[in-house]
Amino acid sequence: MGKMFKRPWGYYEVLSDAPDHKVKRIVIEPEGRLSLQSHKLRHEHWFVVSGTGKAIIDSKDYPLSTGCVVDIPASTKHRVQNSSEEKLVIIEVQTGKYFGEDDIERFEDNYGRV
67 is in which domain, residue-wise? Predict the structure, then answer.
């Protein structure tokens, strides 16, 4: 497995980090919620491995469950939350020009990171 990064909502592991893409395994704890954010330099594709929750993309709600896929274009406001008692596990594939964590613009956050 890749390197694990703890966050207030759970953690993520980097599975692949190449010049043309990055792949993460994101684990969101029950009731966890990522910040409302956007990225200027990357697109994201999510595949739900297990669990249930909700994605908010451009102010629209999308239910998430095992097998769901979500595409998030660059510069699109988005967030994901786990609304179940089980962990929500997502594989995220990033494509674009840059994949650093400093390409996150936060608009709202439950954990004071705005």
Answer: 4-108
Mean pLDDT of 1-26: 94
What six digits make up the tokens of 37? Answer: 């954010």
Any domain includes 53: yes
pTM for the whole thing? 0.94
**Total structural domains within the chain:** 1
Q: Which residues contact 38 (CB under 8 A, 6 or more apart)?
A: 74, 75, 76, 77, 78, 104, 105, 107
Q: Is residue 114 situated within a structural domain?
A: no
Stretch 40-61: mean pLDDT:
97
Determine, yes or no, domain membership for 41.
yes
